[in-house]
Fold:
Amino acid sequence: MDATVIVLFLAIVILTLVVTYLAARNTKSTGDFYTAGGGLTGWQNGLAIAGDYLSAASFLGIAGMIALQGFDGFFYSIGFLVAYLVVLFLVAEPLRNLGKYTLADMINARFDARKVRGAAALSTITIVFFYMIAQLVGAGALIQLLFDIPYWIAVLIVGVMMTIYVLFGGMLATSWVQIIKAVLLMFGMVVMSFIVLWKFNFNIGAMFTEVKTATSHGAAYLNPGIKYKDPLGTLSLMLALVLGTAGLPHILMRFFTVKDAKTARKSVITATWTIGIFYILTLFLGMGAAIFVGEEKILAANPGGNMAAPLLAEAIGGNILFALIAAVAFATILAVVAGLVLSGASAFAHDIYGQIIKKGNISERKQMAAARLAALGVSVVSIILSLGAQYLNVAFLVSLAFCIAASANLPVILYTVYWRRFNTTGAVSALLAGLISALILVSISPSVFSPVEGAALFVGEPIFPWENPALISVPIGFIAGYLGTVLSKEYNYERFAEVSVRAHTGYRERME
Amino acid sequence: MAQKELIVNFAQLEKKPDYVAVENSSRFKEFLNRKKKFIVPMTVFFLIFYFLLPILTSYTTFLNTPAIGDISWVWLFAFAQFVMVWVLSSIYVRKANSYDDEAEEIIDEYLS
Structure:
């Protein structure tokens, strides 16, 4: 390992631990733990949202996909970005106005039934674990390559760090880790894009011309269709991306960390600009890697293309830039998994233990203890699962997480706020149908079964044609919510009136 | 214990504002309609604009024709998605800020 790499690596570890120490002194109540007491400012929260969103998968994954598959890799960038409009226009403010800590809180603003909270918590927990294992396994493999240490040590380092942030510093520490990471990541991206563009005298057209001859795809590199050939499969993926984001629990949780809807709105704007610029820059990284590193070398380092960005850093900036980008990748992974631990812990400790088992009759001290215990539990279980999954291809878990978020969470969020007739049965039906259909369809899809060994989890012919089943499972979620509602008699207009008034005016009763 | 719960519930009952009255008031209805008239068409627009990209790339090839040098239309359309996100989010914030005052007024009038 290079000395620069070690220094930067340690610098990040120390910096984030100092932040955690400072945050721990301010984390006294459950509200502090889950939502940093709602005290983040708009830009802080905006950067933290960007931090939550720009996971290692987007940073390393998209750069790699663009390097290897040209325009098709860019589809992800666009999907992730436009998803923010769905969040901003439809979800962010009602969620902020109705909820307290979790998605289930928001849905329960309308339905008291414990089964609704249970179903919402179940979907959150499923998403969190899938997403987390995908991140941790990816992180282990990546850190193994970057720092030349064994997989299990890599997973343990990331796992222990994330546990420390969340356990001691709660949401405040997690948010600051996100902010630090977002700033580092943007800095790294800008530096690399600048160098790439500089090599073409800042003529983007020249870069496009050069890339036409740089890969085995030739001129086709610049056209869509290298990876996504099936039209409906492509649409299905795009649907999962644009709607899934608006249902991911760790993204939704970010709207509870500000004091009101106005601040939530501001933070989405900061996030949208940061993320937008980031995704445009992925283009320069991807094409830069295709030109200056070359397909063969990228594929040799990692078949998924995840090493494209670090290799590009090495090719254009030598060891120092490589060390910087490796450190940024490390910080990125840490920040995202910490956010996931927190949303998983809130579903266990707040929804299942505090509200369902204890029915809300639980002292502040016990709530806090439960929250910390749940965070520890979520961390330990995901570390163990990730250690066991080293040799499995877990790429499908990310698409599964998005698919569940889009098919189970989003229909219920929209119905709860906007549909007068919606009821308990509808909510439970939508959540379960979305969750189960996404699970089943993904498990028989090409993401899980591939005839090529190692390309997916199992070897075999997929029954379902598309990698991402959102085009089927999202309508199932919506239809189940509709049928569950119209086929059952329950109708509570008073509660709808309450939710509608509160969601749209931001009014909160004092007793809360 | 039971008695204590009863008192708490009673206190909550007393505090609970009459949301049904607010929801039915013409003031709130107009407010909501205005909001919807903005949000619904905008949402429909950006979803169509977004899905137009994969639909056009999947079923047609005319976006592959060069626009500026070797940069083809598909890249420009992709970039237009970014511009759309920035423009629409700015418009949204401006609009939503104007709703805040009205929401305040409704709260003042009916809920406090």
